[in-house]
Task: inverse folding
């Protein structure tokens, strides 16, 4: 685990116009190992978007969920799945980066 990542959490706030707004803040900064799992394309609203799968492995943290996201090297990764190992040593986070 030699890469530094930031796990972010969303909070719901109210904008100055009274509408709900989301803001992201830091939940935790962790050391992680990073493994790229491949790429592909998604089609969203009629436009093709490049995607890249990445797995981050951190020390065990039961509080990390799919509602978080990861900031790594100025890129934001959406969390698709979180696997907590039974021995409580590691948490594996499967993510997707859209460009």
Result:
């Amino acid at each position: 685990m030699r890469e530094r990542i930031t796990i972010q959490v969303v909070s719901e706030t109210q904008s100055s116009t009274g509408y709900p707004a989301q803001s992201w803040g830091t939940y935790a900064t962790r050391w992680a190992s990073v493994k790229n799992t491949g790429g592909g394309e998604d089609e969203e609203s009629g436009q093709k978007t490049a995607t890249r799968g990445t797995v981050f492995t951190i020390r065990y943290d039961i509080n990390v969920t799919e509602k978080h996201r990861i900031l790594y090297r100025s890129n934001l990764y959406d969390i698709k799945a979180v696997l907590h190992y039974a021995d409580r040593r590691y948490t594996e986070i499967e993510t997707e980066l859209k460009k």
